[in-house]
Amino acid sequence: TAALAVPGLWTAGCRREPADAATIAPSLRRDTPTGPTRTVRLRAEEIEVEVAPGRVYRTWGYNGAFPGPELRVREGEQLQVVVENHLPEGTTIHWHGVPVPNAMDGVPGLTQDPIAPGQTFTYTFVAAPSGSYLYHSHVGLQLDRGLLGALIIEETTPHVSYDREYTLVLDDFLPGEPRPLTAATPGMRGRGMMGRGMMGGMMGVQVPPYAGSLINGRLPEAAPVFEVRRGERVRLRLLNPSGASTFRFAIDGHAMLVTHADGRPVEPVRVDNLLIGMGERYDVIIEADNPGRWAIVAVPVEGTHPPARAVLHYRESRARGLPSGLPETLHGRPLDYSDLKCLEMPPAQRPDRSFDLLLSGGMMMDPRWTINGQAYPDAEPLEIAQGERVRFRMVNHSMMLHPMHLHGHFFRVGDALKDTVLVPPHMGRVVFDFVADNPGRWFFHCHNLYHLESGMAREVRYR
Ligand code: C2O
Ligand code: CU
User: Is-annotated flag, keyword Protease (predicted)?
Assistant: First the structure.
């Protein structure tokens, strides 16, 4: 079996199961705005994207752009997003990580019907709590055509100071129409299966055409350049909305101070690199104290695809061009979930209800990805009741990473609050707890889009 280079993920923190005093996530939801209403329009439409000079693809996106426009609001504002669907098929938008009211969650079949071609739908919710989030289509494989973007809810009083900030959207990009796994049979090895669902190059099958790994919609040859001045503290918001890549992220010549995980503030922890799964977000601060022109890389950890690249450039530096090679920091100290100590931790509580969830799939004869052997939508809902403290115990019986995402709630994993958590392969275990404080029908699923599409999902339903 392939040895995955994913240290810094599964030490004690997230699989330790407290014997009797489980600790549960607090409610961070907000129903009433404390600021003005902000209205934004998003047109879902066919667009042309240039991921590098001369490499133009026709795909789908928002407002002509890929990634879509960064939506930026202040915590407490009422956000009103008018979505116009100019696509040839139905669509929705999901506000990934934000505990919105259920009807605003954008999940077709659970919370709304897809917005039909030519139609408009308005999403309204309070922008809270602050943090780095994502928005994306939740219909089929639309996300992987480019229907995604960053949603930033600015804090009123940040717990860390900084002089400048940048958003880095990490992505993988496959030109053309993405294909689901479910169509795969042993005779048909479409790129949907080998390129996106399985580890590239496994079983001797060739890796299909693949445009590459991107930062802010750019291939390495057109790598974005982030300018800094010596002496500045620079905040980077790292977001991974990609269809099928977990990245190891590092900046040459600089350590990172991790300040937020999935938008929640943590005690700052200094690391050299970190793993960021599909749907996860980290905010980090770097001290610009090492003038030069440095490589920023995001290396896909499953498969053999080349890294995404960007450049950290000091105004004082004369250096030009794309720094080549891989940063030393890739081999330094990785972030581990057990390093994360959330600053918003609630008091200890015992769970009222637990679920054991076995994640499996990816076998040659049955390419479906399942939870307890069931593939959504042919899967029983996980039933909970309002006010309950709920525990999910996951074990990964497969050889791939599963970034498991719960809609509508933050959960407690170790001493962190998150909404997406990587469950390591080869019997990796993760336990998380949450409070059932947001009634409705919620999605819980793997954020590898191809695993989701082949069934690795459940409804979490309030009775
Ligand atoms: Cu970003 Cu249901 O997910
Ligand atoms: Cu998965």
Answer: no
